[in-house]
Amino acid sequence: MIADLGPALRTYARFLRNNARWLAAGLLLTFSSGVGQTYFIALFAGRIRAEFELGHGEFGLVYMLATLASAATLIWLGRVVDVVTPRAAALATLLALACAALLMAFSRHVVLLLISLYCLRLFGQGMLSHVAMTTIGRWFVAERGRAVSVTATGYQIGEGLLPLLVVSLLVVFDWRMVWVGAAILLILVAIPLASVSLAVPRTPSAVDIATEDARRQWIRAEVLRDPLFWMVIAAVLAPAFIGTSVFFHQVHLAETKGWAPTVIARAFTVMALCTVCVGLLSGRVIDAIGAVRLLPFFLLPLATACLTLSLVDTPSGAYAFMAMLGVSYGMSSSVFGALWPELYGTAHLGAIRSVVFAGMVFSSALGPGLTGSLIDLGVSFEHQLGYLAVYCVLTSAVMWVASKRLLARSTDQIQLTRMA
Asked: What pLDDT score was predicted for residue 1?
């Protein structure tokens, strides 16, 4: 078995070397999206609530409104990826994200806080992720799983490094200055690197083009009428809802459990390592058997994670939760990146993905607001996590049925297209 790893590793190394420019671009965009992700913003939650005199539920409501508005905007704005170059879309989004970080740094009124959160969520979590995954999904076909898994490591690098960095900086600097620093790095580092790495688009091989031509190219209206699409969405939204809720309430969770502030920040590193390892492995599996076959399995580690965090009060519970969350995130990031072009083609991928990303953003908006309100009503976060574990198990059973139907339909569609 060890001997068999040699050719596989050489093949993987050759893939990375031949596509380093485009993979680096995707990784850069997903890493930069961290400035608008919940795990980053939540690190400032205590200071923001204190300065604006907001309770858990009130701040959760502001955050939910901002994220809901960004989700609604993304459905319209996300289609731009189908009509402009990836380079133009990426540079404009990075610049807008930098401006949002500056607005957060200088906001003095709750209305400005709301606007800054809206922009951070729209251009960070929403558009940067959308541009990265849509571009990689369109540029790669036969090796799409590996390409997506490498691109997704940008999320994990951010989750592993940024919380530790922010916690360290907040010891020395005012929280507003940290946001100024984030904006400066986006302008002086991320934008120039993205400009260079995306200057030359990748052209799929002739085999890739032939494979894609044999696949039916759905338009967004057809996708929205597809019952199986909505079945899959029920599973796709779960990681965003649960992960965002935990990240958003991490300060409250640490206080409830009696953990030091650094416990969860360090646990992010565990999650990042697990996500990267499982994500890269999942990418190879997807290239071999397809993303659809993994649908019934990616929520099971998440169910275990929720149950662990619900029942365990020692710091080891945080690390176990983050490890299992990382396994689920690693699988889901690769699956979600490869699934939509596999099911619906790439011709209208930007428009289709905009709906999916909007749904994920909506789910991440609903999580903090709903769970925060329940906390204020006296429903402990630990109890809520127990119910979420049950949801993950039930949804996995639904995905077993959905995956069987999707596989049968994909086979029939490819045969019909080739006959035509």
From this structure: 41
Look at residues 354, 413, 349 and name the one whose alpha carbon lies nearest to residue 139. 349
How many CA atoms are closer than 13 Å to the CA of 70, on its beta-carbon side? 34
Name the 3-class secondary structure at 202: coil
User: Residue 407 is encoded by which pair of tokens?
Assistant: 């596989």
Residue 47 and residue 363: Cα distance in Å, rounded? Answer: 25
Rounded Cα–Cα distance for residues 200 and 177 (Å): 35
| Distance of alpha carbon 361 from alpha carbon 348, whole angstroms | 20
Q: Which domains does the chain have, with CATH numbers?
A: 20-419 (1.20.1250.20)
Chain segment 317-355, per-residue pLDDT in tens? 888 988 998 899 888 888 887 888 888 888 788 888 888
Alpha-carbon radius of gyration of the chain: 21
pLDDT (0 to 100) of residue 121: 92
Q: How many CB atoms lie within 10 A of CB 209?
A: 12
Please report the pLDDT score of residue 2 as a whole number. Answer: 44
DSSP string, 15-79: HHHHTHHHHHHHHHHHHHGGGGSHHHHGGGHHHHHHHHT--HHHHHHHHHHHHHHHHHHHHHHGG
pLDDT-flagged residues of the chain (< 70)? 1-9, 204-215, 411-420
